[in-house]
Amino acid sequence: MPADPRAVLTRPAPAPDRTVAYGDHPDQVADLRLPAGSGSARPLVVVVHGGFWRAEYDRRHTGPLAAALAAAGYPVAQLEYRRTGQPGGGWPNTLTDVLTGVAELPRLVDEALPGRVSRDAPILVGHSAGGHLALYAAATAPATVGGVLALAPVADLGAAYRQDLDSGAVAALLGGGPEEVPDRYAAADPRSLVPIRTRTVVMHGSEDQQVPVAMSRDFVAAARTAGSHISLVELPGCEHFGLIDPESSAWPRVLGMLRSLHDDH
């Protein structure tokens, strides 16, 4: 494990093979990475990055993750979306960007790189706030999502608001607290959207200081009670960023869970 868990956020990664646009805004794009060789077309893996939905964190910090997934044989798209602190970011565009991107990417990738990626619904790998967005997409547009691997997701927006995660990040996303904009929480909070019918695996480190592991425990328990096809994998000793770091001790478990979801697709 690197001495600084955040080192992965600024670690250089190879340039993507292609970038495609799913809308007119500069942030309505996705970087594509393909595995070596010319094997049969496989379902796409869409990486939804975290950063508490804030503009200062973009898709580039998932470059090492995406490159490692491509090296392991997966076609990968790093999805970008409008974020809080920039024009057009926040409610509702951050959420609708992800819905649009997830729905359009299999077709866009097939057109850009014919025969390399199937048009089957993609597997979503979302980290932190990106985990929230992946769960949201699966709950609200299940036909567009083939499976979800949610890594330390912000799975309960009401609890995240009450706990003031990242100094008001949820209020910045939705424009207020649950008492001020209850309809937005009802529409956007995975905790309110169960059951999630798409097969979902939630992974969370026991030492996470950014998103408490208790949030995933409570969410998965509630989702299972509601009838969701969901499981929780807790990683003892793992913190928040090890889940997206191919150099961390957690990485083999993450890759193994993705392989299981992908093989069952």
From TrEMBL:
Keywords: Hydrolase. This is Alpha/beta hydrolase. GO terms for molecular function: hydrolase activity. SUPFAM superfamilies: alpha/beta-Hydrolases (SSF53474). Residues 31-220 form the BD-FAE-like domain. It comes from the Bacteria. It comes from Micromonospora acroterricola.
